Amino acid sequence: MSAVAPTTWQSRPAPTDADAWIARATEVAAILATDAAARDRAGATPYAEVQLLKDSGLVTLLGPAAHGGGGQRWTTAYQVVREVAKADGSIAQLLGYHYLWNWAARLVGTREQWEHVEAEAARNRWFFGGAVNPRDADVVVRDEGDTLAFSGRKSFSTGSKVSDVTVLEGVLEGTDDHVFAIVPSDSEGLAFHDDWDNIGQRLTESGGVTLDNVRVGWGSAAGYVDKTFRPRVYNTLNVPTIQLVFVNFYLGIAAGALETAAGYTRNTTRPWLHGGHDRAVDEPYIIDIYGDLTTRLWAAQAFADRVAEEGQRLHDDPDAVTERDRGEFEVRVAAAKAHATDVALEVTSRIFEATGARSTATAEGLDRFWRNVRTHTLHDPVAYKRREVGRHVLIGELPTPTWYS
């Protein structure tokens, strides 16, 4: 991968506002775009790409400014994820999941815990992964007195080998109590498997992980005081927060597909021989395709931004979040997720109608946009997102917090 030396950014002032951070993300995307198709085909572990995110400072975006972080809000994080996704959906997913897991201490932990984690993460530019796939059997957490031991297996662990720290989650043995903890990714007993071999999002290192008595102190059990969890409604905001990450890298991938396709149409696509036009850009059906897809994408982006602002108000005052606040936000996120899924799949599929048969050549790599969206949008059935919206409209029901709602 073409890389920018750290001094390129270190010799310039760090971004200080949202616009400057989004501009930084645009720079990162430009670097990733130079060989995105080739890297997708190679499917190599993205060590260099994650280093790029560190060198640019994007990994510290949500961290406290006092400790070298960007001090930014979730609304900016979503925009940054979307910008990076225009060039590389895999790296955008890694970054978006990193933001969620970096924030997990604040979502679940005590003030002392999250202040410590966020300070260390910003100072050391930690990159976060997570072993929290809820479709698998729960990891068992055994109380050993002063320590906890996590044992089990998860089918997916996004970030795995490229992460500095990993968020673990399991159920305390003999109880229904869930426990989150952050551990170094090279911890004894934590083994990542090289078994991520899917058609899309190939560089996300989302393979399985085995936990064999991975030990942490009770002090690292997020939100626990004297071995008792102290719940807040804000704890349950992890699902709508990560689902908005999904929304934004779907829309970023779609935007990148449109931009790439438009460049191909301008420079390479030939007009139809019976259409009477000398240039593809003058073909009425091609003009209509780009007009239609762009209109749909802009509408989806505007809605996603509106929902992100609504969520930011909850992040700004965590202790004030009520069950109704959380439920209404989840419904709005569900609507944004459903709409973004439909738009991104349509955009990444229909661009070929405007680029023509020769654009399907492997070297062009236009298929990666659809493969990436198609792969990740199967994360959870979009029909259940529409169901949340429909039941709220018809009977005022608010979604019960689960791992997917």
UniProtKB/TrEMBL annotation:
GO biological process, one term: L-leucine catabolic process
Keywords: Flavoprotein, Monooxygenase, Oxidoreductase
UniProt keyword Oxidoreductase, yes or no: yes
Gene Ontology molecular-function annotations: 3-methylbutanoyl-CoA dehydrogenase activity; flavin adenine dinucleotide binding; monooxygenase activity
Domain Acyl-CoA dehydrogenase/oxidase N-terminal per the UniProt entry, residue ranges: 32-116
Flavoprotein found in the keyword field: yes
Pfam families: Acyl-CoA_dh_2, Acyl-CoA_dh_N
Ranges of residues in domain Acyl-CoA dehydrogenase C-terminal: 245-379
PANTHER family in alphabetical order: ACYL-COA DEHYDROGENASE, ISOVALERYL-COA DEHYDROGENASE, MITOCHONDRIAL-RELATED
Name of the protein this chain belongs to: Monooxygenase
Species this chain originates from: Streptomyces rimosus subsp. rimosus (strain ATCC 10970 / DSM 40260 / JCM 4667 / NRRL 2234)
